[in-house]
Specification:
about 5% helix; mainly beta; 7-stranded mixed beta sheet
């Protein structure tokens, strides 16, 4: 069974940058839709960014222009580059993978659709 392992989280001051990594145990990064979600304390999990197998990226309005999702097929890894971080970006960030992009998009709103693989999450804290 394929697994996803996130890394790169930590503490950063407002305005700072972090790059999250999501390493897959199998060769799915190049053929699956990939996504990053996040869950802030006391809030529901929300979609942050998606990346299709064809390389098309989409972002939540709240991170547009600040976050970039990308992948390295040779390393079976998806990244989330985050700049100009704000305290509101504080959350546990989760990586998800599924053959169908729509499943990634509705993962947090449709209980009947669950991505094939979720990572365990990595905590990002943005504060002074």
């Amino acid at each position: 069974q394929v697994q996803l392992v996130e890394s790169g989280g930590g503490w950063v001051q407002p305005g700072g940058s972090l790059r999250l990594s999501c390493a897959a145990s199998g060769s799915i990064v190049s053929i699956y839709a990939m996504g990053w979600h996040r869950q802030a304390p006391g809030k529901q999990r929300e979609l942050v960014a998606t990346l299709t197998s064809g390389g098309r990226a989409n972002y939540a309005d709240s991170v547009q222009g600040r976050f970039t999702i990308s992948r390295d097929n040779a390393k079976n890894t998806v990244y989330l580059q985050m700049i100009s971080l704000k305290p509101d970006d504080t959350a546990v960030y989760y990586c998800a993978a599924d053959p169908i992009l729509h499943t990634i998009i509705v993962a947090t709103t449709d209980k009947d659709r669950n991505p094939e693989v979720w990572g365990q999450g990595t905590l990002v804290t943005v504060s002074l």
